[in-house]
Design a protein that fits this description.
By secondary structure, the chain is mostly beta strands. It has one domain. It is built from three helices and 14 strands. The strands form four sheets. Strands 1-14-13-7-8 form a five-stranded antiparallel β-sheet. Strands 4-3-9-10 form a four-stranded antiparallel β-sheet, with no helix packed on it. A hairpin with a 4-residue loop joins strand 13 and strand 14. The longest helix has 16 residues. The N and C termini lie close together (11 Å). The N terminus and C terminus are likely disordered.
Length: 175
């Protein structure tokens, strides 16, 4: 096994230990922050704007190079206390908040810019509460490369989600 392969394995193991991993030397995508938050901003669930859902998952994302938001995917997977999946492929929720242009809806901008954090939110609905979720994994990337982070951060290696295979597989050409 080449030194670079050992380095990649070491980085993957180290990343799993802190609850965030990606599958490249310089990751194209990063999930920089994931936390439970409370806000008075309206949040869109389905087609309805909701004021009665102050609790949400706040996630900060970052890209290595400019990317159109249409080329990326952001999803959340929610798990119960036994690490069993209770909600999968949940998309971020739009919020209605005060921006530098006045009150406006916020989701992903048309272009994700290198070095700029983009915040997205996932509504914590009564349906999720009824399923007694205890952990969440947020996956950010495209069909070839993804980054993921869990909350709580120590659970990522224990949780299964569809993108985990491309997150940790060695994609070298065998050279």
């Amino acid at each position: 096994m080449r030194t670079s392969q050992w380095t990649m394995i070491g980085l993957a193991v180290a990343g799993m230990a802190i609850g965030s991993i990606a599958n490249a030397d310089t990751p194209a995508y990063r999930v920089r922050l994931i936390r439970e938050a409370t806000s008075a901003d309206l949040i869109k669930v389905g087609t309805a704007w909701r004021k009665d859902l102050p609790k949400r998952i706040h996630v900060s994302l970052r890209v290595q190079e400019n990317k159109p938001s249409s080329a990326v995917s952001v999803k959340a997977y929610f798990y119960d206390k036994d690490n069993q999946l209770v909600a999968s492929g949940v998309k971020p929720s739009e919020i209605w908040t005060n921006t530098k242009h006045g009150f406006d809806t916020v989701l992903l901008p048309p272009t994700l810019e290198h070095g700029k954090d983009v915040d997205v939110f996932f509504a914590l609905t009564p349906e999720l509460a009824a399923k007694k979720w205890k952990a969440v994994v947020v996956v950010f990337g495209d069909a070839k490369q993804v980054a993921a982070r869990s909350f709580p951060s120590t659970l990522l290696p224990k949780l299964d989600f569809p993108e985990k295979k491309i997150l940790i597989d060695d994609k070298s050409d065998g050279d």
